[in-house]
Amino acid sequence: MSLKELTKAEEAVMKQVWHLQKATVKEIAALMPDPKPAYTTVATVLKVLKDKGFVEAGSAGNVLTYFPLVKEDDYRRFAFDKVFSTYFDGSYENLVSFLVEEKRLDEGAYQRLLEAAKKLKKK
């Protein structure tokens, strides 16, 4: 299955689903950051996530329980790869340069980033 990009609202709900691993709309809504979305908003987002193949629902009586179908690490890689290719032209040098210049990294963090980038290139 190919992953699809999530909206901010979908990502926020998915973070709670990943955290809980199995939850009802009410449980997910309760953990959302302030300002908390309405119950119906969370339910609608979960339906969209189900349609996109990110979650599945099972029923326990009258209550639907949602669980993730996509692993958080898989989506994290997908999202990073999209940003990496779009904003850094797939260049580790551009990424590290951005982090150093824009995020004011110290020398130790810079060296760790370079080493990590070198390891990635070897893969």
Automatic annotation (TrEMBL):
InterPro entries: BlaI_family (IPR005650), WH-like_DNA-bd_sf (IPR036388), WH_DNA-bd_sf (IPR036390). Keywords: DNA-binding, Transcription, Transcription regulation. Gene3D superfamilies: Winged helix-like DNA-binding domain superfamily/Winged helix DNA-binding domain. SUPFAM superfamilies: Winged helix' DNA-binding domain. It holds the Pfam family Penicillinase_R. Belongs to the BlaI transcriptional regulatory family. This is BlaI/MecI/CopY family transcriptional regulator. It comes from Terrimonas ginsenosidimutans.
